[in-house]
Design a protein that fits this description.
This protein has helices at 45-53, 73-76, 94-105, 111-120, 136-148, 166-181, 193-198, 217-223, 229-236, 242-253; strands at residues 6-14, 20-29, 34-38, 62-65, 68-69, 79-82, 154-158, 185-189, 202-207, 210-215. With 255 residues, it is an alpha/beta fold. Strands 6-7-8-3-9-10 form a 6-stranded mixed sheet, with helices on both faces. A 4-stranded antiparallel sheet has the order 2-1-4-5. The radius of gyration is 19 Å and the shape is globular.
Length: 255
């Protein structure tokens, strides 16, 4: 029996302030799927992503990775997580950081794969540096290597391309596509609507902690009679489309 890589049913999150971060979110990601998680600031993307990977707790009727309870050690070993702004130890070198992850995971059988990613991302000459001395882009590349070196079946990324040069973006997309061919699923929280429309095969749109759309980009554009995925997002999250925004601002300029 083939399990979804990720199965989350009726996920909710309420903060101490009373603010509801998630409300009744159902999400399933199958083997080899590439899914973009879109939504405006405060829509619940990071709350959902952090709950799925165990950074904080969320309530759910069911939350599984590869058919395993997501909080189990076995499930966590199947997850690769690329954070947006979460820090990594500045006092370690790049090599020490990757070796530390190896020890935590208890495996070293993936070295050729890891070395290939390091070489393609032009990281080889940086690994002996202290992380605190690395640029933002180099740190991001190192986090990506650490997240996928153990060949996880479920990869979760939060704004993985922020601060990266075009070459690195091309390599990471190729990396993701290669892992999908072996059955890994990929969920990416992003604000890059253009990339979402042209690279991702499925879009999950969040607003105020709820899923308001889920489907292929072309399908969502057709269903909302929109000009682009950007307009789909604006309309479904309570904002007028780009043409209306342009008209309003042009009128304001002329007054």
């Amino acid at each position: 029996m083939t399990h979804p890589r990720l199965l989350a049913l009726d996920c909710s999150k309420r903060y101490r302030s009373g603010t509801r971060g998630l409300s009744g979110v159902d999400l399933e990601v199958g083997p080899g799927e590439l899914v973009a998680l879109l939504g405006p600031n405060g829509s619940g993307k990071s709350t959902l992503v952090h709950g799925l990977v165990g950074i904080h707790e969320i309530d759910a009727d069911l939350l599984e990775v590869d058919g395993l309870t997501h909080s189990s050690i076995q499930a966590k070993q199947q997850i690769g997580f690329v954070p947006d702004e979460l820090p990594i130890p500045s006092s370690l070198t790049g090599v020490e950081y990757l070796e530390h992850l190896d020890r935590l995971r208890g495996r070293r059988d993936h070295r050729p794969w890891r070395n290939a990613i390091v070489e393609r991302l032009a990281l080889t000459t940086h690994l002996d540096k202290f992380i605190g001395e690395m640029s933002h882009g180099t740190k991001k590349k190192l986090q990506i290597v650490g997240a996928v070196a153990h060949r996880p079946s479920m990869i979760v990324m939060d704004e993985p391309f922020r601060g990266l040069d075009p070459h690195a973006v091309v390599v990471i997309r190729a990396l993701v596509d290669a892992m999908r061919e072996t059955g890994s699923a990929v969920l990416v929280a992003t604000h890059d609507v253009l990339a979402a429309e042209h690279w991702f095969e499925r879009i999950v749109l969040l607003d105020h902690g709820r899923i308001v759309a889920d489907g292929r980009p072309a399908q969502l554009i057709a269903e909302t009679d929109a000009a682009s995925l950007e307009d789909v997002m604006l309309r479904l999250t309570g904002v007028s489309d780009t043409a209306s925004i342009h008209a309003d601002l042009t009128a304001a300029l002329s007054t």
